[in-house]
Design brief:
Shape: globular
Distance between the termini: 34 Å
Oligomer: single chain
Radius of gyration: 23 Å
Order of helices and strands: EEHHHEHHEHEEEHHEHE
Helix content: 25-40%
Structural class: alpha+beta
């Protein structure tokens, strides 16, 4: 299972972040974010360009690709809602026609009807790979997010899904590490209205995040294995503390949140509704179309 997290610009109380889908542990994502920011700091003497560059993207992974989409070759948002057709491997680089590709599929073991169907669907993508190096240069089989639709903020983050977070404050050159996935005894109810009008009642547990540590970025890097162990220990200790005391002072902000919410998917436009194939970081406080708090 992917270990999800995010990277943000700001502080634990005010940040603008972007999602990361896997290996968000300190030993993985944490070390990468630190190293990337250090490169900008070394080149520029500050982190302003790092912040501008990062916030122009929709996902941390774009920092590693320079914003280049692997499916269409465009400098644009992180690809999502990706058709399974794009996962086709170009196993036959020398096949030069639809008929030859169909024959190759039959040779691989597909029946004649299946080979005809697959060849009809797959050949345009295989041909694109051969001609351009990208399977979907016209973006017919995938979509892209935009920075506005991808922002993670204190009001939109859902700590159920965000297990780790790394925040960089350019003003103070400080690196913050936060842990999420901290279960609390608080619950709330969601009235989910499907696009067809069907109502579904969900009872959800509230999760929270907590700051683990902060580091001056002009000093040597943290020992990431130690950071990871400390984060796991903090998550576990807070979970136990909350279970034993539902009036714990750290839970006070959660008690101010609405106990009942309405998520009306009928009001979500198609482009926003399809903008991401990953679980959306939809918080109980997220101000999104079709969602009302009671």
């Amino acid at each position: 299972m992917s270990t999800r997290g995010f990277v943000g610009i700001g502080t634990p109380t005010q940040f603008d972040g972007r999602y990361n889908h896997w290996d968000s542990y300190p030993t993985g994502l944490g070390a990468k974010v630190w190293a990337t920011a250090q490169r900008f700091l070394s080149e520029d003497g500050d982190l302003d360009r790092f912040a501008r560059t990062f916030l122009g993207y929709t996902d941390w992974r774009q920092m590693e690709t320079g914003g280049l989409c692997a499916y269409c070759g465009q400098h644009t948002g992180q690809p999502h809602s990706i058709s399974g057709l794009l996962l086709i491997a170009d196993q036959y680089p020398h096949v030069s026609s639809l008929a030859a590709y169909r024959a190759a599929l039959q040779h691989q073991g597909f029946s004649a009807p299946d080979a005809r169907r697959r060849a009809r669907e797959e050949w345009p993508i295989v041909r694109n790979l051969q001609q351009t190096g990208y399977p979907d240069p016209q973006s017919q089989h995938h979509q892209h997010a935009t920075p506005d639709h991808s922002a993670i903020t204190p009001d939109t983050v859902d700590w159920l899904f965000m297990e780790w977070a790394y925040l960089i404050d350019p003003a103070s050159t400080t690196f913050y590490v936060m842990v999420g996935g901290i279960e609390t005894p608080l619950t709330y109810t969601v009235d989910l209205i499907r696009p067809n009008g069907y109502h579904e009642t969900l009872h959800k547990t509230r999760y929270m995040g907590a700051m683990l540590a902060f580091y001056a970025m002009r000093l040597p890097a943290p020992r990431w294995f130690h950071v990871e162990a400390a984060g796991d220990a903090l998550r576990d200790s807070l979970r136990k503390a909350f279970a034993a005391n539902d009036a714990h002072p750290l839970l006070a902000p959660l008690y101010t949140l609405p106990r009942v919410e309405v998520w009306d998917q009928r009001k979500i436009s198609t482009d926003r509704g399809l903008r991401d194939s990953k679980p959306r970081q939809a918080s109980s406080r997220e101000a999104r179309p079709g969602k009302e708090s009671l």
